[in-house]
């Protein structure tokens, strides 16, 4: 009789084990969903070297695409220099335009990026430069210079290098340049003044040193733009 009870208990135990299956799947690690960033927005207005006759500007861009179809928000940044430091205005929009009020009679740069509702962000678009018309304006300030060489934060051979930049003026005025260069992060040593060339040969540099330089642009009517600070390192 005892053997019968023992067999019955073992049989019931086996049935319960088979019904319980392979365990609870609720604790299995869930793989995160893949999410890609939206494409970089394409700027429509204002484009490079645009003169905006109104300082209340409607910035426009083309729609970004998102592989997963996520909701997209756009971030517009406006600055007085192409390093975007500091930023004059930063605005967000869920549409393809944004009205932003800016100071009159100044040169600005703007860029835009797209971010989806899962926080994946695109890269910034290229910086576009534009001017806001001043009251009774008879002269526009020059645009801030753009770096050509050496590449930003690059390493150069030897103890000399040629600084090269480009600049433009909405009125077509002749431009001159002051060049500041030294090892301070905010260079104060003026190494060239009132030159018309967009190059400067920097010689006598120290080896294994980081140099900083900036270019101040002037037109012949008193308009002035101060360029951003660039840097390079000698070997």
From TrEMBL:
Membrane-spanning residues: none
SUPFAM superfamilies noted in UniProt: Fibronectin type III
Signal peptide: 1-23
UniProt keywords, alphabetically: Signal
Domain of life: Bacteria
Keyword Signal carried by entry: yes
Fibronectin type-III domain ranges (all copies): 144-235
Keyword Signal tagged: yes
Protein name: Fibronectin type-III domain-containing protein
